[in-house]
Amino acid sequence: MIYYLLYPLHESYGVFNVLRYVPFRVLCATATAMALTFGLYPWFIKSLQKKQIGQVVRAEGPESHLSKAGTPTMGGALMLLALVVSTVLWADPTNALVWVVTAVTVAFGVVGYIDDSAKVKKKSTGGLAGRYKLLFQFTFAGAVCGWLYYGEAGLPADWLELRLRFAAPFVKFVADDPDPFTLPGWVYVAFSAFVIVAMSNAVNLTDGLDGLAIGPVMINAGAYAIFAYLAGVTLFEQPVAEYLFIPKIESASELSIYCAAVIGTGFGFLWFNTYPAQVFMGDVGSLALGGGLGSLAVLTKNELLSILLGGIFFLEAVSVIVQVGSFKLTGKRVFLMAPIHHHFEKKGWPEPRVIVRFWIISIMLALASLATLKLR
Are 163 and 181 contacting, i.e. CB atoms less than 8 angstroms apart? Predict the structure, then answer.
């Protein structure tokens, strides 16, 4: 909004010309999100405590988690506010891709809010039934992806040209050679919706220790900021995307603003969520942030690469699937407890050790993902 209102003044006042540069607005979005979270969380945490909105802990979980019962939860509501406000303030409001990722984030946050509210009301870990969560998530994600791949009005021309093109890591993307990387629209709609929903729930499963989820979320957002910026930036009169053989989507650069807002929000939240946590994000935060990351993967054409980049989330989700499948089929458990971060706790790892090591792995995976820009 600030970009939309003030940039036209650059013809009279040259200082406003700086708003045209995405890196400047990236810094502003980061600072704005940090200011909002650092400034408001002390008040927000006290408000949650007064309303007795506290975490409910599973009885069968690690014994060390019993002391976390009653810790204020639903802290993701403030994260969502800071993220949306920072994005709207500094991104180009005429960019449809920014509104797509923001809409998915808010919609999935609403689902998480309903789930958290049910848990708090029931004083139980069982909130909104899983089938209803998935139904809403797939319905909304499917509708958004249907518009992205079948709609015309409002969508950027550069997106319309490439929306049915499939990009694979380690494979050169050549703009004028669509075959064999063009997919039927309905295939892309289903695939993209699955990526968004899967990432949302994977982040939700990862959110089980103090600061565990937000670290990889910020790292992933940083990587997507680079991918998005490179997809649209032009240097020395040559699009960087063509030089790197990645999809050239000029409008995707604005997604870097959203990514920066995620990072700024994450820093502010982590200040209060680091071990021992003063507040938890809850499903309102984890489902929303996961949906946002999934949308970024779709809009930057990094759906497959998201498996490598979001490897921590992928591992957490697979550990649950394997655990449940093994128990139903054989009556035996593969892990001491799922998701896998609880397995390591059960083996005697202190919580901070699990958290920091998962962060380190996430950084390594992000570096490996960025390396694919040249390894083609």
Answer: no
Is 198 a domain residue? yes
Nearest residue to 267 (alpha-carbon basis) of 222, 308, 313: 222
d(CA 127, CA 237): 54
The 10 Å Cβ neighbour count of residue 110 is 16
Give the CA-trace dihedral at 258, 260, 263, 267, to 10 degrees: -120
For 78-100, the pLDDT digits (tens) are 999 999 999 999 999 999 999 99
Sign of CA dihedral 182, 185, 186, 189: positive
Any domain includes 209? yes
> What's the rounded Cα separation, in Å, for the pair 213 and 312?
9
The C-alpha atoms of residue 137 and residue 143 are separated, in whole angstroms, by 10
Q: How does pLDDT run across 108-122, given as a tens digit for each residue? A: 999 999 998 888 787
Q: Where are the alpha helices (DSSP H) in 156-304?
A: 157-162, 185-206, 214-232, 240-244, 255-273, 282-299
More confident residue, 210 or 32: 32
Give pTM, 2 decimals. 0.94
Quote the CA–CA distance of 127 and 374 in Å, as a whole number: 45
| Residue 277 near residue 212, CB atoms below 8 Å | no
Sign, Cα dihedral of 291, 179, 233, 243 = positive
Residue-wise pLDDT tens digits, 192-206: 999 999 999 999 999
The total domain count for the chain is 1
Nearest residue to 108 (alpha-carbon basis) of 279, 289, 261? 289
CB environment 251-275: b (16+ within 10 A), e (fewer) = bbbbbbbbbbbbbbbbbbbbebbee
Residue 90 inside a domain? The answer is: yes
CA–CA separation, 257 and 2 (whole Å): 13
- Would you say 189 and 265 are in contact if contact means Cβ atoms under 8 Å apart? no
Find where tokens 């890591």 sit.
Answer: 169
Phi/psi at 56 (nearest 5 deg)?
-105, 130
The more confident residue out of 20 and 306 is: 306
Domain range for 87? 23-308
